[in-house]
Amino acid sequence: MWGLLLTLATVAPAVRQGQGAPGASELGLGPPRTTEAPVSPSALPGSPAPPPAGKKNGTSQQRVRVRVIKKKKVIVKRRKKLTSPGPLVTARPPVTTSPAGTMDLPEAREPGCPPLGLESLRVSDNQLEASSSQSVGLGPHRGRLNIQSGLEDGDLYDGAWCAEEQDAEPWLQVDARHPVRFSGIITQGRNSIWRYDWVTSYKVQFSNDSRTWWGSRNHSSGMDAVFPANSDQESPVLNLLPEPQVARFIRLLPRSWLQGGASCLRAEILACPVPDPSEPFPETPALASSDPLDFRHHNYKAMRKLMKQVNEQCPNITRVYSIGKSYQGLKLYVMEMSDHPGEHELGEPEVRYVAGMHGNEALGRELLLLLMQFLCHEFLRGNPRVTRLLTETRIHLLPSMNPDGYETAFRRGSELVGWAEGRWTQQGIDLNHNFADLNTPLWEAEDDGLMPDTVPNHHLPMPAYYTLPNATVAPETRAVIEWMERIPFVLSANLHGGELVVSYPFDMTRTPWAARELTPTPDDPVFRWLSTVYAGTNWAMQDPDRRPCHNQDFSLHGNIINGADWHTVPGSMNDFSYLHTNCFEVTVELSCDKFPHENELPQEWENNKEALLTYLEQVRMGIAGFVRDKDTELGIADAVIAVDGINHDVTTAWGGDYWRLLTPGDYMVTASAEGYHSVTRSCRVTFEEGPVPCNFHLTKTPKQRLRELLAAGAKVPPDLRRRLERLRRRKD
């Protein structure tokens, strides 16, 4: 969801002579000049990437993305040449170096390997060591790809591993805990808005016991291979090894870094499992999930194909429809799942999941594709829980709200997309800041004493500026708003990535320009309940041994937080949904890794499966019922349901049905509608699975009856005429 001060963090200085941090006048607002070879993301099988362009002698050609610093002064630390122990070194294909300094790798390459798990936290802190660290916050445990720093340098949550300045032989070491086949390294610089630090080249060593080491050799020169690294803070740079090495330990040894900066890096290691030689009958690793689902990343065409397959497999409970198009013309597809798809059944609540608002946060997209497969399979198997869910609820799944951004991220691949590429739409719009700000007019009306008599506390209208033809509103945003207004949604969750926490409205701080401030809604108990339900049933969030993703430990507060108390988000979808419609919506940050590798999808599904189902079932909490005309028994649309003590009302759907989410307790509830006398009754919400029925019958006012009679051309009844005359005399 969040990209903490990304704009400032990505302005990279040029490598230059002299001491100290570079000034703006010397930067030219651009990074150092680099020479960049084409990249083939197929180096990472399991990463979403196009296949190799061509083949030769039956093997795929892989082109490796490398960056070489040209004609720039860098600090170089010389180290003695290490001798390689013969028994541990396997034969390697020849490697040559081009005049530009890039390594010419062999054409026929062994396939790359998945990430070891530094970014996803599968590698624990005690598996990381370093020769030295500038501080605790710059220790080896911070040397993880895409880790984000706190606002202040020098705290416990800085943005990389950084060696001490006087460390002449710096290194960062990873213990895989058992032998693996190392195949590549991905590096980044230090995430910081205050400093510019990155490594420009490094060597790699391997060991089986952490005492005897050998390195990757450049066979054309007989020297240890030196790998080109980074030229800015954030862009991930992949280097494949000349030949994969089987070992338990791997070390990255920085050789040069930015002039005036420090030896700082973030990394991910690519490694394949290998059989344990001590086991005569090695076991096949068990899959993280036993569900027969499609665990891979899906681009736009693959997603559309999968949704079509689910619809064909379960035609009686599914419907695929589009709510609009992206800026580049890709359709925003929704999977509807219900026992009567395509229609709103009276008394049946509507629920939605939205994913992919930020295109590079891919896990939510895949979880919704997995969820629709799971619901279809389990319904066909007769699973009673799923059957009840689909017969009592109408579910809508939007897996990709920002398909343009996702396609950008997908082409880069799961490990090379970085922290922000693909986040925004093709127009450069952050969709989670693009909804109308209804918070400001709400709070101004409260401050002026205009609520609720002049300004309602619900269904606030769109501001005039937002409806102008030249308003900066993305087509994706307009499509979702029209969707919200068309369907009477009751409950929703917005799936994001990059953290492990559930945040709830309000997302915008009430104090203008406050970066963070606790700003609860009138329905704070309900939102805290909903957030706790998801966090409490998410395996990863409930892991007592897990470490914080980046710079905040949300487990101290039950893995939930008020959105505005985290960081202010004006124009969020959550706030808009609450203030413009009946729908209660939270944001779920699903994983530390925004775009996890395919081999991690089964475990991520297991982490979230129970939470996704349990959250859908929360639509049954509170009260529900009908508001009907006492004389005709017809439902009354747009009747207002007000709960004493809660300054936020909901309204009935076009059939007179309504749902009001409430925590257990006793409530006085009033139903009112234009032309009718209001009715108040007591409704008790228990801990029993609900919702609790709370129905109303309203009687028309005499004025409304007269208006309807006159409109129909009928004569006024004598009794009504006498009542009206008495009312007139009282006024006189």
Automatic annotation (TrEMBL):
It is found in: Secreted. Residues 1-20 form the signal peptide. Residues 18-64, 81-107 are annotated as: Disordered. The active site is at residue 589. GO terms for cellular component: extracellular space. Its main location: secreted. The keyword Metal-binding applies. One of its GO terms (molecular function) is zinc ion binding. Residues 296-619 form the Peptidase M14 domain. Its cofactor is Zn(2+). SMART domains: FA58C, Zn_pept. Residues 111-272 form the F5/8 type C domain. Residues 37-46 have a biased composition (Low complexity). GO terms for biological process: proteolysis. InterPro entries: CarboxyPept-like_regulatory, CARBOXYPEPT_ZN_1, CARBOXYPEPT_ZN_2, FA58C, Galactose-bd-like_sf, Peptidase_M14, Peptidase_M14_domain. Keywords: Carboxypeptidase, Disulfide bond, Glycoprotein, Hydrolase, Metal-binding, Metalloprotease, Protease, Secreted, Signal, Zinc. Belongs to the peptidase M14 family. May be involved in cell-cell interactions. No carboxypeptidase activity was found yet. This is Probable carboxypeptidase X1. It comes from Pipistrellus kuhlii (Kuhl's pipistrelle). The lineage of its organism: Eukaryota, Metazoa, Chordata, Craniata, Vertebrata.
